[in-house]
Amino acid sequence: MHSSEETNPKQIDDLLKEKLEAAFHKPTSKVRLHDIAKIACEHSPIDLAYAASHLPPNVRPVLYENLPNRDDKIKFIIHTDSDTRLALFRQLDDSELKKIFDRMPIDEAVWVAEDMPERRLRRVMELIDSKKASRIRELKKHDRNSAGRLMTSEYFAFTMEMTIGEASAYIRDNPRIDFAKGIFILNPSGELQGYVPARNLMINPPVTPLRQVMRPILHKVTPDATREEVIDIFERYKLSSLPVVNIDNDLIGVIAHEDVVEAMEDLADATIAKMAGTSERLSSHDSVWRRFKARAPWLVVTLLAGLLNVSVMSSFYSRREGGLLAFALFFVPLITGMSGNIGLQCSTVLVRIMAMGELSEGNRRETLMKELCSGLLTGAFFGVSCGILTYLLDFVGGGLLGSATPLAVAVIVGVGLIGGCFAGTLLGVFSPFFFVRIGVDPAISAGPIVTACNDFLSMTIYFLIAWGVSTLFF
Fold first, then answer.
1. 23 phi, psi to nearest 5 deg
2. Strands lying side by side in the sheet with 183-186
3. Which residue from 3, 44, 234, 340 puts its CA 20 to 30 A from 443's CA?
């Protein structure tokens, strides 16, 4: 019997983590297994699935084995992470996996199968029902980020002439098919004609034909539609399910709202990882070496750009040592920091718009111009403000700039900051479009690669402006 204690997920995770750590660190294995079995009976298998990711990989199968029944074990496998599934697949034999896949929904089985070695998967597919195995293979053929992969082939679909009573009887005889995915109506050749709201089944007489209570289908997608397109449709029209049809308008699958929520989470995780400059899948038990390998390649460009920046600064200083322009070096962190943040804001906003499917051919130009103007206005405001503050700082600080002319330094820093922010804005606005054009995820435009390029570009422009202003006016 699972605990019905009302609390938030974070509290549940913390509680389970403490309980499991205490159980697995007991000195006597007999007492430990008794405690683990008790924990498995008291808590939801979904909560245990999330908690398992905090355990060492070698003990996760122990938690799985102590779940009270097979339905709980299926829920555990579905909701846990890939690392835990891999640990379980190494321990479970083919006969146990057959029992799991036999009772698992087809759409969930496809995602679980992603974490199984191909050779092992073929063996298991040969053991389970041939019809179900065929449907799993069919779904696996679709691209991972397509509507075909998000859909399930288990749904309720009836002909137009069937009555409400006949449909209700069929639904009662198939309780494992999710009723919330909708009830769809087909013509005799299998083409999608409409759907029936669940309420209509309850308020109309059993002898009423379904064609009299069905409603038209307003939104549908093909299996090759991207997950971004699917997410956009669900968000815009607030759908609970979405039918998937082939080129002949035959119904081949249904996408449920919960599948779209998971797709949104996956998309957000991938986008955030790329923007942070890492492709790693976070796990508390990943080794330091694995984390290093995931992050280091992204930072090579940053290292090279930093060395290039040093060479530019040293060359500039050696030629201008002791002069007015030497003071410009002290403001380099300010210039690169401000321009980098402005560029990051622009690219992040554009990446989000692209990821959510809100950017179209019609509004592309308007969106681009708004971001350009926003970045330039921000750069101009802070450039002028910085120039004024630098000029006033010399008086407040009692000659902090030494022999340098305060007005000269203020003008150089102010105009240089405007130029650096202008460079950051251009890079932040146009880099997502550039990456899309060459077929690369635009989220990379907000990562270390473009950040390093922005530092070099903004600093170089700042030095050129500083040199030009000092030569012309001072």
1. -65, -40
2. 156-159, 183-186, 192-195
3. 234
Domain boundaries, the chain: 156-276, 288-473
Q: What's the pLDDT at 397?
A: 54
Q: List for the chain the helix, strand, coil content (%; round to 5).
A: 70, 5, 25
Please name the residues in contact with 301: beta carbons below 8 A apart, sequence gap of 6 or more.
Answer: 448, 449, 452, 453
Tell whether the model's pLDDT for residue 173 goes beyond 60: yes
Upper half-sphere CA count for residue 158 (Cβ side, 13 Å): 23
Residues 151 and 133: their CA atoms lie apart, in Å, by 16
Residue 347's pLDDT is what? Answer: 80
Structure tokens at 391: 């000029």
Asked whether 156 and 254 are in contact (CB, 8 A), the reply is: no
Model pLDDT for residues 20-49, shown as the tens digit of each residue? 877 777 655 554 677 888 888 888 898 998
Q: Which residues contact 444 (CB under 8 A, 6 or more apart)?
A: 274, 435, 450
User: 156-276 — its CATH code?
Assistant: 3.10.580.10
Question: With the CA atoms of 64, 67, 72 and 78 taken in that order, what torsion angle do they form, in degrees rounded to the nearest 10?
Answer: -10
Phi, psi of 45 (to 5 degrees): -65, -25
Placement of tokens 């403001």 in the chain: 331
Tokens 């679909």 sit on residue:
157
- Tell me the one-letter amino acid at 471: T
Q: Which residues pair with 157 in a beta bridge?
A: 184
Six-digit token string for 226: 């991207």
One-letter amino acid for residue 302 of the chain = T
Q: Which residues contact 48 (CB under 8 A, 6 or more apart)?
A: 16, 39, 40, 63, 67, 76
Q: What are phi and psi of 133, to 5 degrees?
A: -60, -40
> Would you tell me how many other CB atoms lie within 10 Å of the CB of residue 275?
21
CATH homologous superfamily for the domain 288-473: SLC41 divalent cation transporters, integral membrane domain (1.10.357.20)
Residues 56/13, Cβ–Cβ less than 8 Å: no
Specify whether the CB–CB gap between 413 and 390 falls below 8 A. Answer: yes
d(CA 224, CA 147) in angstroms, rounded, equals 6
Per-residue pLDDT at 6 exceeds 60: no
372 in Cβ contact with 429 (< 8 Å): yes
The token pair that represents 163 in the structure block = 């009555």
SS3 114: coil
Q: Is 52 exposed, middle or buried (0-12, 13-18, 19+ CB in 10 A)?
A: buried
Task: Tell me whether domains 156-276 and 288-473 share a fold.
Answer: no
User: What is the reported pLDDT for 217?
Assistant: 93
The predicted model scores a pTM of 0.60
Tell me how far apart the alpha carbons of residues 206 and 200 are, in angstroms, rounded to a whole number. 10
